[in-house]
Amino acid sequence: MATHISPAELYTALEQAHARIAELEALIATERQPITTLRPEGASQHNPLPTAAPATTEHEQAAVLMTAQRDLARLIAQDAPEAEVWTTCLQAAILVSGLDCGGLYLFNADNRAFELVAHQGLGADFVQAMAYVAEENPHAQRILRGTGICFTAAELDAQNDQHAEGVRAMAAIPLQHRGQILGCLNVASHLHCAIPEHAYQALAIIAVEIGSVLIHQQSEAALKQSHAQLSATLVAARMGTLRYHLPTQRIFWSPEAAQIIGTNQVEETLSRFIEYFHPEDRELALNVLQEALAQKSVPSREYRIFTASGELRWITNYGKLEYDQAGNPLALSGLIQDITERKQAEQKLQRNEQLLRLFVVHSPAAIAMFDRDMRYIIASQRYLIDYRLGELDVTGRSHYDVFPEMTDEHRAIHQRCLAGDVEIQANDRLLRADGTIDWVRYELRPWYELNDEIGGLIFFSEVITERKTAEAALRASEERYRHLAEELEQRVQQRTAEVQDLYDYAPVGYHSLDAEGRIVMINQTELDWLGYSREELLGRSMTDLFTPETLEVFTHEFPVFKQRGWMQNAEVTLIRKDGSTFPTLINATAIKDATGQFLMSRSIVFDNTERKKAEVALRLSRDQLSVANAALHKASQAKNEFLANMSHELRTPLNGILGMAEILLEEIRGPLTERQRRAVAIIESSGGHLLSLINDILDLSKVEAGKLELHLESILVGEICETSLIFMKEPALKKNLNLAYEFDPQVVTMTADGRRLKQILINLLSNAVKFTPSGGKVTLQVRGDAERQTIDFAVIDTGIGIAAADMNRLFKPFTQVDSSLARAHEGSGLGLALVMDLVELHGGSIKVASKVGQGSTFTVCLPWGDDLAGGGVKTEPHQSEAAPSRQTSDQPPPPCSGTILVVEDKAMNFIALSDYLSNLGYSIITATNGQEAIERAAAHTPDLILMDIHMPVMDGLQATRRLRADPRFATVPIIALTALAMTGDRERCLAAGATDYLSKPVNMRQLAALIARLLPPTG
Predict the structure, then answer these.
(1) Contacts 24+ apart (CB under 8 A), 829-833
(2) Which stretches of sequence are listed as region Disordered (predicted)?
């Protein structure tokens, strides 16, 4: 994103940069200082330097010096690399001196030392030793003062480093420019005992030339850096420089400007340059140029241009005029800046402001926005209607002028909110100008400018006078429904307690072992048999409870069981805490994870004491064994009959309760107030809760009896998930929960029982919604693992979480983590137990991760493909015996005609069915038993018969068979209604001649739809 900098600021910076560049260029062009003769410290006319025999004549020495000066001058013109410059400078010094070795040092101001950058004729060890000379060195101090130094052979002998190299004489001459020490030139000889006078003078002259070369080199580097910094600044600000030369009418621009324009050219004629501008902006650009020449100032404008590639951009300009010596305009120079991003942002802001205005004005809520002086900025149409302002345009008007009756209390609230407070009122009295009172709920809060200062207030409100009136009316009728709700709640609690008691006293024991054979779960029945407490056995090895004979068998069979996955009718002798033993019979199933790794066993333990006694008795008398077997069979039949009777006894009154509730909600008996509707909805919801509890109990009993069968088919996973989420939409909305769905696109279909998968998901989602506080989030996440061919269904919540100590009780039927009398969440504790059973029937697994106060994640892992390998899992076609969803369409069934015979022995059920069907236009005939149904059918010839199954005198199955035997009723639709809803009921009804089958409680709309399908409307 471009750096935010104004054209004026950048133009000032540009002038400063140009001034610096000019200064550096002047420095480079400065003539070299006059050559002066330098004498080393300690040398004078009275004390001349020791000399050696000259090697050349003075004329030859002068020629050599001139050649060296010329070579150094070429360095400046050629702009050679640093290393080449340094080497050339050193070679020139050695050449003019006539000596044979030396080194060139540069002074580093950062680390305050002389650093060797070039050398010739010196050994590697000597170079390494002398590569760095610190500022503190005495010789370095003299050089920094601008004093040259000469060393004789005797002086060098005293220095170990010099002696090791074999140097016999050396001169050190400072390299400087205008008093600034740039470095040091060291030239030495392995032959001469002292530096000749002419050699030193030549070195002094060439040192001045080298100083000029070095300062030129530094200036060039600084110049390049300044150019680079200026270019970087322009690029960052998306700017470039322009210069229009008036005499030639040509425009020159920088590379940065060329980048903005989108061209490789660096100059154009004025007419060609104008062609870059948008056709609508070309005249403006020419007018600005004329205005600048006339008024001698360059106004800034914004233009649209097309780049060479055809891209549309926005630019702006800033500049000034240049004049010749006569005062006439010579050129126009300045900057252009690419402001495309800013213009796009401004246009987006304008669009957003327009959208905001449309949103507020046409919002169905009463919204008003004020500035800091409480003047209207905008108000919605709903606001004008609610506050009886009609077509008044309030924009710009004071709120207190529009409502002169505004109280001081409300004015004080406005001032507090303008200071940063937020005011929320659920019930506020609004005094109208005509003296009437309205009730209002509102929220008043400040809105903020971009600089985080309060710009004014925004007001959200709703006139709730009608609601307050309705609440008063509802309170009058509330008492009538309270007694009905209390009675229903008592009956639900009674039935729930009966079911819980039935489970607590199960006649068999249950336990689970981990991969090491340690007890991880055990029920109270088995604990009572063994005489231990739960704490004493959890985590303990099961082998501690085996007799030696059983232990030997267990050691051999347990690894086989973990691999095979099942164990049937294993005879095991267990040791009680008191040391006594008793025989048991164990059936076990292995629970494995998605990878097939053993997690734990699920074992059912039967106390085999009686069986063993029976075996002993069998050896004595086969007759006694027959009696025992008959008793066992009778007990099994009694259990099934009990479940069937319990289902019938619970479903029969529920049919009336839910039917009546549905009739009331459809207002067949007259309209309801909103409070009445909510009360009846509570009745229907409570009945539905009881019905789901009954279904869970029946499903659980079917699983335990091995009679629950799956209908396996290819299903659409997304459809199942979305349907499950629809079930939870209303309870989530009531708790203000965010219900989210994350779906893996590669998961489309799978092989499973769609109805049971939906039951699994709804149970988990219902728990998540139940235990997540208001404002939280519940997520259904689906992920497929193509490599393992599994699908994970994860239900994630931000709820109360589960303590680690309570994890072992999660999947136990009739058990809740919070089982106290004061618990905050309802439920039977059957849901998770049933979920685990259904998951295992599918050949899958379930796991839980949870932290108290942070939420829980329940993950169900199911096979993806067709091979479920469920060990005895059977399939059956979908049956309609399951409780229908009470979530039906809001549209009532269309009016129909025809005669329906309703056979029902319960008055409440008969009334509900008759009221609902007669309201749809059907003629109703009634009968209270099967015999009466045959008689009434013969007398009236109905078009359709609703046949209850359990009735006195003659049951529904026998009556159906009798009717089908009569040719008059061979094709008349007969719908069987029963409250048993047990496995096989549908088949028995259809075998008797029923056309279709519904289990009680009957959903009225579903029944009406079925009747309409079997008995289409006429006319």
Answers:
(1) 829/500, 830/693, 830/696, 830/697, 830/700, 831/696, 831/763, 831/766, 831/767, 832/763, 832/767, 833/700
(2) 871-897
User: What's phi and psi for 288, nearest 5 deg?
Assistant: -65, -40
User: Is pLDDT above 60 for 355?
Assistant: yes
Summary count for the chain: helices (H), strands (E): 30, 34
Q: What is the DSSP string of 312-374?
A: EEEEEEEEEEEE-TTS-EEEEEEEEEE-HHHHHHHHHHHHHHHHHHHHHHT-SSEEEEEETT-
Beta strands in 87-153 (DSSP E): 101-108, 113-120, 132-134, 149-151
Amino acid identity, position 513: L
Q: Is the predicted pLDDT of residue 476 greater than 70, yes or no? A: yes
Backbone angles phi, psi at 67, to 5 degrees: -60, -40
- Which of the four pLDDT bands, split at 50, 70 and 90, describes residue 272? confident
Phi-psi region of 465 (alpha: psi -120 to 50; beta: other; left: phi over 0): alpha
Q: Give the mean pLDDT of 81-88.
A: 86
Q: Which residue has the higher pLDDT, 647 or 444?
A: 444
The CA distance from 974 to 969, in Å, is 9
Whether pTM exceeds 0.70: no
Beta strands in 672-761 (DSSP E): 713-716, 738-743, 749-752
Distance between CA 881 and CA 552 in Å, rounded?
A: 49
Query: In 3-state terms, what secondary structure has residue 791?
Result: strand
pLDDT at residue 882 tops 50 = no
Q: 909 to each of 267, 647, 652, how far by Cα in Å?
A: 97, 16, 8
**Other Cβ atoms closer than 10 A to 224:** 12
Quick one: which of 134, 81, 130, 87 has its CA closest to 112?
134
Environment class of residue 289 by beta-carbon count within 10 Å: exposed (0-12), middle (13-18) or buried (19+)?
Answer: middle
Q: Give pLDDT, residue 36.
A: 35
What is the C-alpha separation between 632 and 635, in angstroms, rounded? 5
- Lowest average pLDDT, out of 518-522, 722-726, 739-743, 876-880, goes to 876-880
| Widest pairwise Cα distance in the chain | 161
User: Which tokens go with 602?
Assistant: 């699920």
Place of tokens 């062609």: 275
What's the pLDDT band for 693 if we cut at 50, 70, 90? low
Residue 10 Cα distances to 224, 233, 243, 244, 669, angstroms? 19, 8, 16, 19, 82
Give the tens place of pLDDT for each residue, 840-857: 888 899 999 888 888 999
Nearest Cα to 76, choosing from 219, 258, 274? 219
